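Slide 14.
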Amino acid sequence: MTPVPVQRIPPSPGQPPGGTSAVIGVDRTAATLEARDVSAWFGARQVLDRVSLTMEARQVTALIGPSGCGKSTFLRILNRMHELVPSASMAGEVLLDRSDIYDPSRRLTDARRNIGMVFQKPNPFPAMSIYDNVLAGLKLTGTRTDRDTKDRLVQE
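Slide 15: predicted structure.
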C-alpha cells in the first residue's frame, strides 16, 4: 500500500483556532472515492445492481432516494461495513484514489481509517464508556496525546 502524504488542513472559515474537527490530530489529503459496478446481496436477495458513482475529492455528494432503495447499504459498502453482516455479499470495486479497498492484502482498519462514516443516530460502542467512545478515533489512528488534551476533547 502506498503511504498517504500528509497535509495540514486549516480550520474552516469562522471556526475558532484549536476547534475540534471530524478527524482530530490526523492530517489527510483529499481523495477520490469511486464505486464501479457495485452489486450487493443479503442471502439470495439482490439489493443493489451495478451501481457506479465517483465522489470527487473536496466535493459534497448527496445520496437521495426513498426508504429501502439501498442508500445505507451502498454507504456501508464504501466503508467495508457490509461484510459484517453474515448473509451479505457484494461484487464490483470500491477504489480510494485508484486503490481497491477490498484488495485482500489491504487491512480493514486501513480502509476505515481513510473512509469515515457519520451515522444518522449515535451508536456508541457498548463495551466502552462514553469517554472512551469519544476518543476511539484517536486510538484507531494511533494518535497519542496527553490526558489533559483528551479531557478537553471529550469535554468539547
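Speaker note: The beta strands are 33-42, 45-55, 88-96, 99-100.
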